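SEVERITY: medium
COMPONENT: batch folding queue
REPORTER: lab tech (J.R.)

DESCRIPTION
The queue accepted two submissions in a row. Attaching both inputs and their returned structure tokens so the on-call engineer can compare them side by side.

ATTACHMENT 1
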Amino acid sequence: MRYILAVFFCFCQYTCYAVRPFITDDARIVGWRLAQYETWLRFDKHAWQHWNMAAYGPSKKLELALGFVHGVQIHTNDEKDYSYAIPLVQAKYLIKEYTPNKLPGIAVVAGSFLPGGNGSFKAPGYGGFAYVAITQCFGKTENVLIHANVGANHVKYPTFEHNVVTWGIGTQIKTIGGLHLIGEVFSGDPYVPGSGMSFQTGFRHIVNNYVQLDLTIGQGLSGTHILPLWYGGGVRLVTDYFEKRKSRNHHKHL
């Protein structure tokens, strides 16, 4: 992990605005020939989870991502088992980029958590998710961002098949320096089907153009499976290493 962070600190030149550990996504992609690494932790009385996702922008409109989760499942008798799920695959297409004080940006997202892994985190069958992400921006320095998502989650397991509507609305409000207040209400997590309506709040601190930290706390509100109180934290790093490498190779052949 120390080596990975060092590599990103050396090459990162872009301000990063993480969504995860927040559930409500934004209408933004990483950018052409840019790469990002997101990692976040989530703790509740049932599990300790460590999520990882890497993404790359092969074009000005498209972002492709690959991820996984691993951690510890806590059983009712207080026994703990290591579990992991791989891979999470996702594509995000930017229809319209948002600009301050104008019409919102729009992106569409689709993906799946394939049934690889071991333990309770492993998906018991195939499924997929898709949603539309909308972001409205107020203020020239993105003083207030409002995100809205609506979509669906489909799962087809050996014992049952299920479709559920997912939605979320969240906001990011700039306060002092790089500190932002964040909050959301959502129903269903595209990555983890089956949860009901929940809320999450916390803060996002943009330390500089290289480092951003998120700390959150959330709680389920309603549904068949009400989520317990959880705590989360995450970091996202962006690099233009591949863009620079492409440029260097181009100049070598001139």
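ATTACHMENT 2
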Amino acid sequence: MDKSMPGLDLCSVQRSFDAAADAYDEHAVLQLEVAERLLSRLEWLKIAPQTILDLGAGTGQPTAMLMKRYSSAHLVALDLSPAMLKRTRKRGRWLKRPQVVCGDSHQLPLANASVDMVFSSLSLQWCDRPELAFSEIRRVLKPDGVLLFSTFGPDTLKELRSSWAAVDGSHHVHAFMDMHDVGDIIVQAGLQEPVMEREVLTLTYDSARDVMKDLKYIGASNALQSRSRGLVGRHRFQQVEQAYEQWRVDGRLPASYEVVYGTAWSGQSSRDGMATISIEDIGNRSGMR
């Protein structure tokens, strides 16, 4: 991980998502779209997981989709925000609800080799130390377990970052990791056969103020440890809005999101510490590349 990258205040992250829980589903259009695209990658995997961890479940939209797809599986929905988990708890049917766990991705409150699949959509970018999160994922995965995740790359919110940089030298937008750096961390954590890809999705708005309001409503507030604790004055906001105008196209302002998708396997074996892969399994996995 780039040591110059500003750290995150995880207590602030939790407070922001707690405050956004009630409005999240209404405003998290991009988050739902990315979750659906990540879920579509399950078509390539010939697996039947019995225990699934939805890591960073939020309000449980992906959890509900996973429950529908794997109706016989046990779903564990983990999130840092208790308020988000209150909404997740209501997903599914009366006799089939997800198990909700309030916890930190850096130290998962789960046993070793206890889940068949970890699914994490747009959550890992909130990890202050992603190398710990991926090591924990590897620890809780069973032999031949699989990780599917999405996260944000460095071009995310480049327009907003540029507009703030034109006004002052403080950090106002998170720095997101490059896809290749994420891949390196995955391998260092002991996960195997990583497959990575990226795409850029763009939302458009009437004004820069609308961009920032949308981020607030989904809990994506500035949680950098280096952030200014003082209030930002109206004049400075107006300067940011003015700087953002350079990005206007066809009467709309873009907000770009570089989305990174990844798949990796636990690489563990239940037999004498030696990994064994069947011919059929090799065929299944090679189809992902």
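NOTES FROM REPORTER
The beta strands are 51-55, 74-79, 99-102, 115-121, 141-152, 192-205, 253-265.
No errors were logged for either attachment.
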